[in-house]
Amino acid sequence: MAILHSALLYGVPILLIAAALRDVATRTIPDGFSIALAAAGCGLRATEGPLAVVLSLGSAALLFLLLVPLHARGMLGGADLKLGAAVAVGLPPFGTMDFLLLTALAGGVLGCVYLALARLPSPQPFAVGIPASLPGRVLAVERRRIRRRGPLPYAVAIACGGTLVRLIPAGG
Questions:
Q1: What is its membrane topology (predicted)?
Q2: Which of 14, 33, 41, 141 is spaced 20 to 30 A from 160 at the CA atom?
Q3: Which residues contact 36 (CB under 8 A, 6 or more apart)?
């Protein structure tokens, strides 16, 4: 049982990082990430008893309902909405509030990074025969998205908030 608990506990940040990378690359997050996170969260909370699962599902449902108006106004993507609610499934109700705060702070940092990227001078064309590095290619693509006023990859902020809430002890 302890091995399963550890696997679920460490699997959550791995899933979040994978979802964030996918969001950066394609601005999409497959539903499988949210489903896997919700299942892992239920498994983690089940180790504390059925009441813990019910409370977590309730707080995740409430979070989902509170975020729907942001999605309806185009301020939050549908996949981000599902991903955030899925992370909340694995947290106690007060942990969900910590998750929201940490995600909002990470989203602010993400927004500042994107504002800074928008102000950088345009990168020079790649030299012939010299392969561009992966970070350089990602930066070039992100700069094009910024110029076109594309959305932020908010799964990055959700991944930061979801991972940090696991690393920082409750009340600490």
A1: Multi-pass membrane protein
A2: 141
A3: 15
